[in-house]
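Backbones bend. Our protein:
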Amino acid sequence: MAVTTRLSDLIVPEVFEPYSLQRSVETSALYQSGIVVPDEQIDALAKGEGKIYELPFYNDLGDDEANIGSDDPDANATAKKISASKDQCIKHVRNQVFSSGDLASAIIGSDPMKVIADRVGDYWNRQDQRLLIASLKGVFADNVANDSGDMRYSVAVTTSTTPTDSNCISGDVVVMGKQTMGDQSKELVAIAMHSVPYSRLQKQNLISVVRNSEGKIMFEEYLGMVVIVDDGCPAVVNATSTKIEYTSYLFGRGAVARGNGSPKNPLEIERKATAGNGEGIENLVTRRHFILHPRGIMFKNASCAGVSPTNTELALAANWDRVYNRKMVRIAAIITNG
């Protein structure tokens, strides 16, 4: 009698889930570039109760000119104080269901658990990047509305004229984007961009490849920053110029806080005996509870219909408000026509 191997025969949730999470970290561009750095405090919040978390912080000391000393016993210096504020983040509650029919063709001739875990890990990595880019759309919409756009630099055309090289991505444009952070610009370690400006830099041979000791490509660099290519980066037609504006994002190390929560059932395999007109289908259900938060930009939860925000809701300016000093926010944006 033939024996049918099913997902439930291949996957042990207690083994699969930690492996899948580890593979997600190992292959994540956000982790490998330094944009996200492990943080025990954020992990603890993600694993805890509730969905909105306050992140208190001390403001920097003021820059009042120092006192001039004297020998007058009655001349008392006026003490200065330090003030505190708070950032705020939200726990994202997400899940996805994969059919075993799709997975079956991927596991032939390989370690099935590894292949499936890699596929699931890569899926969640892509989701993380899209969620972060959606958040940045909202962050910079708020920045334009309430902070005079001081975190962005644009060279995109503002009229219906044809863009020239000066309106496209270049080293000068990136440097000016970095300069929005002033003397903290040296903290920027990564750049995320749409494939159109990326291709322009490629044509100019400005993208360098970093390999490991075995000659395998680890990542690409531009101006010393790790390059992340994602067509989720905004590419929007400007209503006035009628030209496409591409937004690229610059990140400092640890610019984004990440914490992994603990769903009650991170992984389940569901058997539907009557599905497929009685042939039977198995579904793999994977769940993630996590925090992915641009540090220093409060999530206000002003417009959020569900337990946690959709990517569309994350892109709303009304849901964000910068609470850090500009130089402390290790994110910048450049807007170009290519």
Summary: The chain has a mean pLDDT of 88. Residues 112-146 form the longest helix (35 residues).
